[in-house]
Design a protein that fits this description.
The complex is a heterodimer of chains A (389) and B (161). With 389 residues, chain A is mainly α. Chain A has 15 helices and one strand. Chain A has helices at residues 4-28, 33-43, 55-76, 79-110, 115-126, 130-139, 148-173, 178-210, 215-235, 240-250, 253-280, 287-315, 320-330, 335-343, 353-375, and one strand at residues 380-381. In chain A, α3 packs parallel to α10 and α12 packs antiparallel against α13 (320-330). The relative contact order of chain A is 0.18. By secondary structure, chain B is of the alpha+beta class. Helix content of chain B is 27%, strand content 32%. Chain B has five helices and nine strands; from the N terminus they run βββββααβααβββα. Chain B has helices spanning 57-67, 71-82, 104-107, 109-113, 148-158; strands at residues 5-9, 13-19, 25-31, 36-40, 51-55, 87-92, 116-122, 125-128, 141-146. A five-stranded antiparallel beta sheet of chain B has the order 1-2-3-4-5. The longest helix of chain B is centred in the middle third of the chain and has 12 residues, at 71-82. Classes of the chains: A mainly alpha (389), B alpha+beta (161). At the A-B interface, α4, α6, α7, α13 and β1 of A face β1, β3 and β5 of B.
Chain lengths: 389, 161
């Protein structure tokens, strides 16, 4: 029997705590993600105040958080933007993949984790945080800079690469053979291309089917559709996150901005819960042991992102200072590194992965923006108090 | 006319800009959220934004007015963005068309094409919302709103050959 009073008290305390942390992050103009992770670490197993009853809710909430994160990421882009970006940025995007996936993979192998776990660490170091980067560009007044379309295109490439990467990692996680993994990948790519083509041609139609003049009807329909497709995707082993991402991409224009405003608040809530959950399920006692590898990996992958940004910007004929800014903007890692690490639950040899990923993201989500700020704060005047991105 | 370029900012919006004669890159970032940000770059470092200012709707109109821009055209533009399939164009009346000297009502422009004449630019003056009695003169520039096909039809009416 659940102790209802304790359950509600714990949940209330957690969510109120998230609110306070978000307020704190806002005051200092940093991403709240590292703070949420720290809160999770503090309340988890071996932490300061272990939770008793609300673990189950938090666990389900965390699943929803991943779905929301990827769904709203998909909403950010229209199929047209994805296709155009792919065409123009493919060489830089591939360079980004090779340069930033390899350090994680190599580190995993050097730590003796075995190839499966090492692949996950590669995913952790590969993907920059679109959330942190977008906020950084706005805060520093870099949005209109010439290098910014390059940075954004690299992020778009990463997000598409993730839609292929997550099913691969998912197949690795459940320990299937190479054939099954290959099938998952083929299915994932086919579904991705199909969804893009659908959205490219009939993006508005899905929107008008799902949306209604009543917010209540729209919210329930979109939320339900995203969860349903996420569940279907999971059942055919291409990862719930990818399913949600595809639904997000399939909505465009007016429908996308409606969905964004309806689901944005839910995304903030459940993504927060997801980061806390990741912190909760990570043993803080394991962090000191992985601190040195995390810092080394941070230094190496900061350098590889800098080089990625530099090269991508140089290809577009952008000046030296613009190339540096492009590199610095990409250094931050955040939500998607945690999403990848979260998939590794139960993978052989990945026992230290959550601790290493948590330490790594704590480091990079802070170090990236700080380095960018030091490099050249743009003058932004008249910025409204509510930060919109 | 300044050479205006548009650049897509995936996930963010759009950047619209031109380079001034003095070499300043000047433009506006149109965010998806509806936010508008005016930016100026210095000629010594055209890559990086020197100053950017977020403007509310009212402030945008005030700035456009202060600069002497036509608010009619701007509000028409924003209307076109909100109504899909609606187009706006400028049609110059040729000297030789049979409609010169006739009123808009007599020319039955809307009946023939479905498009409406919402303003007429004659020389240096813009005449908004002309009534059916308004007489069309050669060399007038008609601001026409309608479907793309309707606008083409008006263009065909007002030009010769």
């Amino acid at each position: 029997m659940i102790d209802r009073a304790l359950l509600l008290t714990e949940l209330g305390a957690i969510i109120l705590g998230l609110g306070l942390l978000a307020r704190l992050a806002g005051r200092f103009g940093v991403s709240p993600i590292p703070l949420y992770l720290l809160a999770g670490l503090a309340f988890g197993e071996g932490g300061l105040v272990p939770l008793v009853t609300s673990e189950q809710f938090i666990e389900v909430g965390a699943e929803l958080g991943v779905v929301f994160l990827l769904f709203t990421l998909g909403l950010e882009y229209t199929a047209r933007e994805l296709v155009t970006s792919m065409r123009t940025v493919a060489p830089s995007g591939l360079l980004d993949l090779v340069l930033n996936f390899t350090p994680g993979l190599t580190a995993g192998l050097l730590l003796g984790w075995g190839i499966e776990a090492a692949l996950f660490l590669g995913g952790v170091t590969y993907i920059s945080s679109s959330g942190v980067v977008a906020k950084l560009l706005t805060d520093l007044g870099w949005t209109a800079n010439l290098e910014t379309p390059v940075v954004l295109s690299v992020l778009v490439f990463e997000d598409l690469a993730m839609a292929v990467l997550l099913p691969i990692l998912g197949a690795v996680a459940i320990g299937e053979g190479a054939t099954t993994a290959a099938i998952s990948i083929v299915v994932a790519v086919a579904v991705l291309v199909g969804a893009l083509a659908f959205s490219y041609r009939h993006g508005d139609r899905l929107g008008s089917l799902v949306f209604h003049s009543s917010d209540e009807v729209s919210l329930l329909s979109v939320f339900g559709l995203a969860l349903l497709v996420a569940g279907l995707a999971e059942s055919i082993h291409i990862s719930a996150a990818v399913g949600a991402f595809l639904v997000g991409i399939s909505l465009s224009g007016e429908a996308a901005s409606r969905a964004q405003s309806l689901l944005g608040p839910l995304r903030d809530l459940f993504a927060g819960v997801f980061f806390v959950f990741f912190g909760l399920s990570t043993d803080p006692g394991a962090i000191p042991a992985v601190l040195v590898p995390a810092v080394l990996l941070g230094v190496v992958t900061a350098a590889t992102k800098l080089f990625t940004g530099w090269t991508a910007a140089r290809r577009r004929g952008i000046s030296r200072s613009g190339r540096i800014r492009a590199g610095l903007a990409l250094v931050a890692r955040g939500e998607f590194s945690i999403v990848v690490a979260g998939l590794a639950v139960g993978v052989a040899g990945a026992e230290d992965l959550p601790a290493l990923a948590a330490a790594y993201v704590l480091l990079m989500a802070v170090a990236g923006p700080v380095a960018a700020r030091m490099a050249g704060p743009g003058r932004v005047a008249g910025r409204p108090a509510a930060a919109e991105t | 006319m300044a050479d205006i370029t548009e650049t897509a900012l995936p996930g963010v919006g759009q950047r619209i800009e031109f380079v001034s004669e003095a070499g300043n890159r000047i433009g506006v970032v149109h965010y998806r959220t509806g936010r508008r940000e005016l930016f100026v770059c210095s000629p010594s470092d055209p890559d990086a934004v020197e100053l950017s200012v977020a403007l509310t709707d009212d402030e945008r109109h005030a700035l456009a007015d202060a600069l002497g821009g036509s608010t009619i055209v701007e509000s028409l533009d924003s209307m076109a963005q909100h109504i899909e399939g609606l187009a706006i164009d400028w049609v110059t009346v040729d000297v030789g068309t049979p409609f010169v000297g006739k009123s808009i009502g007599d020319a039955r422009v809307r009946t023939r094409t479905g498009a409406s004449i919402v303003a007429v630019i004659r020389g240096e003056t813009a005449l908004p919302a002309p009534g059916p009695e308004f007489g069309i003169e050669a060399e007038d520039v008609l601001v026409v709103v309608g479907t793309p096909d309707g606008i083409v039809a008006v263009g065909d009416l007002m030009t010769t050959g």
